[in-house]
């Protein structure tokens, strides 16, 4: 089973890129972030024509998450995180697909930090941590994947000294991610490539992709029931080099 995550950075504007990648890569399940489309504007028919059924949680202009599946039924479990009834951002959706409990998330960026946006990031992180704690020991395989907007270590960022004050790399953010990992989750990509510089995002500015000046901010966290079934994974970095593409590349894993 091949499962991918992709911050598409506008599902309608990048639809040709998404469809091309789906045809070439043929993942079984895909989690998308930053749809930037209201619920009624999600390109469901185009994805159905490509062989993928979908559930999605849209939002006009910003945010938005979706789960796609090819040849599998998607049974939605829920959307949004508990703990803040005033939080209307479309950042989390989860479902059962082929016996795997999948959570798709788009964690807040948090910049500028410090400030209200950073406070919201940490608050959202706390709610996510509480939710993850309920799933980590489940006998059901659980995968929590998406754009975490966190570089966990210095290995995950080009020139870490330039990012020390950024919300994605501040000590509070990294500590929050470490808190989730401390529950017993497995960072799939880092497990597969323990000593390699691997990036999933390259800024549009300063020729970042050509210089490989990237960040690893898109992650797969696996609970104990599925961590031992991890067989492979990687980053489709070539997609970042396509025209009119997202600033993220698709990331994928395979599990038994």
TrEMBL record:
- Molecular function terms, GO-annotated: double-stranded DNA 3'-5' DNA exonuclease activity
Q: Does the keyword Transcription regulation apply?
A: no
PANTHER family attached to this UniProt entry: EXODEOXYRIBONUCLEASE III
Name the chain's protein: Exodeoxyribonuclease III
Going by the record, the broad EC class of this enzyme is hydrolase
Sorted alphabetically, the keyword list is:
Hydrolase, Magnesium, Metal-binding
Question: Which Gene3D superfamilies does the UniProt record give?
Answer: Endonuclease/exonuclease/phosphatase
Statement: the UniProt record of this protein carries the keyword tRNA-binding: no
- Species of origin: Chitinophaga horti
């Amino acid at each position: 089973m091949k499962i991918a995550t992709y911050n598409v950075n506008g599902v309608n504007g990048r639809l040709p890129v998404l469809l091309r990648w789906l045809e070439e890569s043929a993942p079984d399940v895909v989690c998308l972030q930053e749809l930037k489309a209201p619920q009624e504007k999600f390109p469901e028919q185009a994805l159905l024509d490509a062989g993928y059924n979908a559930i999605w949680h849209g939002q006009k202009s910003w945010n938005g998450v979706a789960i796609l599946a090819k040849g599998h039924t998607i049974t939605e479990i829920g959307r949004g995180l508990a703990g803040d009834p005033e939080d209307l951002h479309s950042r989390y959706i989860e479902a059962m697909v082929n016996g795997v409990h999948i959570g798709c998330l788009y964690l807040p960026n948090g910049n500028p930090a410090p400030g209200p946006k950073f406070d919201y990031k940490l608050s959202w992180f706390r709610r996510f941590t509480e939710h993850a704690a309920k799933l980590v020991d489940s006998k059901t395989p659980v995968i929590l994947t998406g754009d975490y907007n966190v570089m966990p270590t210095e290995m995950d960022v080009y020139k870490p000294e330039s990012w020390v004050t950024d919300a994605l790399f501040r000590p509070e953010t990294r500590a929050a991610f470490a808190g989730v990992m401390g529950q017993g989750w497995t960072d799939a990509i880092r497990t597969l490539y323990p000593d390699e510089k691997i990036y999933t995002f390259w800024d549009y500015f300063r020729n970042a992709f050509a210089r490989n000046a990237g960040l690893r901010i898109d992650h797969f966290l696996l609970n104990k029931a599925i961590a031992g079934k991890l067989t492979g994974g990687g980053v489709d970095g070539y997609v970042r080099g396509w025209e009119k593409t997202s600033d993220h590349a698709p990331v994928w894993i395979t599990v038994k």
